[in-house]
């Protein structure tokens, strides 16, 4: 229940961002009032990376009924999105919301903490906060859909035998511990930023896992040096744009041996109109 409530808080926190993009890039004005336009053509008109445009509009569709995907890959207006074009006051309201009010939210973290660092940099320079964040992520991950138990039960770990698993961005090692308890023959290397690893090493590793789990400082944007049988990338990619996700993967190539695997456990978006409205909103 706690994990579910937290996710709904995130939904409320972020659900205005699609409208901000729609206003800033004047997307509604570029969609025919009567007709349709492809995502590819619309992205070119707006100067937006096409996968990002799809994410923006599909989010707005599920939350605000703004725009509709009349057929796969094509966008049309609804009465809501058409009002942005035809009623000046509606567009003005978006402008006030995002040019006047939203800025305080967008810059709030840095101002509140009197820092020019981004969120992860700030955590890295404050070990106690970093430790608290790791604990929070462990608690948030206890929901049935993202629990480590799901990962333990739904991947054939036995095929790795007594192999080595590198847990990239593995924080305090809670996921590796869960898998190790079920598959004790495996060896785990938990990698994360130095402050996170320092905090993890101050914790107590269960006696039955000593010697089976190693903690190692590593930046996953730099070349990997551990030759493993499997590289686990759990709930990492959803925090990074595609180019950075690809960079993370490329760092593994030089050290990967024949037969090595990459296991990604992360969010997947349903195709539009294939899930309930509640599921669609939460996913997007």
Question: How are the SSEs ordered, and which strands pair?
Answer:
Elements: H1 2-14, H2 17-24, E1 37-38, H3 39-46, H4 50-64, E2 68-71, E3 74-76, H5 79-86, H6 88-106, H7 108-112, H8 119-124, H9 127-140, H10 148-153, E4 164-168, H11 174-182, E5 187-192, H12 194-201, E6 213-217, E7 230-234, H13 242-250, E8 261-265, H14 277-283
Parallel strand pairs: 4-5, 4-7, 5-6, 7-8
Antiparallel strand pairs: 1-3, 2-3
Helix pairs in contact: 2-4, 2-6, 5-6, 9-12
Question: Notable features of this structure?
Answer:
disordered N terminus, alpha/beta, Rossmann fold, 284 residues, elongated, Arc Repressor Mutant, subunit A, single chain, O-methyltransferase activity, 3-stranded antiparallel β-sheet, 2 domains, 5-stranded parallel β-sheet
Describe the structure.
This protein has 284 residues and is an alpha/beta fold. The chain has 2 domains: 2-106, Arc Repressor Mutant, subunit A (Orthogonal Bundle); 129-265, Rossmann fold (3-Layer(aba) Sandwich), CATH 3.40.50. Helix content is 48%, strand content 12%. It has helices at residues 2-14, 17-24, 39-46, 50-64, 79-86, 88-106, 108-112, 119-124, 127-140, 148-153, 174-182, 194-201, 242-250, 277-283, and strands at 37-38, 68-71, 74-76, 164-168, 187-192, 213-217, 230-234, 261-265. The strands form 2 sheets. The chain has a 5-stranded parallel β-sheet with strand order 6-5-4-7-8, with helices on one face. Helix 12 links the parallel strand 5 and strand 6. Helix 2 packs across helix 4 (50-64). The longest helix is centred in the middle third of the chain and has 19 residues, at 88-106. Mean pLDDT is 86; it is low at 1-11.
């Amino acid at each position: 229940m706690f994990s579910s409530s937290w996710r709904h808080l995130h939904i409320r926190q972020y659900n205005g961002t699609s409208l901000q993009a729609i206003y800033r890039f004047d997307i509604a004005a570029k969609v025919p009032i009567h007709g349709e336009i492809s995502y590819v053509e619309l992205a070119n008109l707006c100067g937006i990376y096409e996968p990002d445009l799809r994410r923006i509009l599909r989010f707005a569709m599920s939350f605000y009924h703004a725009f509709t995907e009349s057929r796969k890959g094509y966008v049309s207006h609804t009465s809501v999105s058409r009002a942005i074009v035809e009623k000046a006051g509606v567009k003005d309201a978006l402008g006030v919301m995002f040019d006047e009010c939203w800025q305080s939210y967008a810059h709030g973290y840095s101002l509140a903490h009197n820092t020019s660092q981004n969120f992860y940099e700030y955590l890295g320079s404050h070990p106690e906060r970093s430790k608290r964040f790791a604990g929070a992520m462990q608690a948030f991950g206890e929901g049935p859909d993202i629990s480590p138990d799901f990962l333990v039960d739904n991947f054939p770990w036995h095929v790795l035998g007594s192999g080595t698993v590198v847990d990239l961005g593995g924080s305090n090692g809670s996921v590796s511990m869960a898998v190790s308890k079920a598959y004790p023959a495996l060896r785990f290397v938990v990698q994360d930023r130095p402050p996170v690893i320092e905090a993890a090493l101050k914790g107590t590793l269960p006696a039955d896992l000593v010697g089976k789990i190693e903690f190692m400082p590593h930046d996953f944007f730099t070349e990997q040096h551990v030759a493993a049988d499997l590289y686990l990338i759990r709930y990492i990619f959803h925090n990074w744009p595609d180019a950075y996700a690809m960079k993370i993967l490329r760092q593994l190539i030089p050290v990967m041996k024949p037969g090595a695997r990459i296991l990604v456990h992360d969010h997947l978006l349903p195709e539009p109109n294939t899930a309930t409205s509640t599921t669609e909103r939460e996913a997007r």
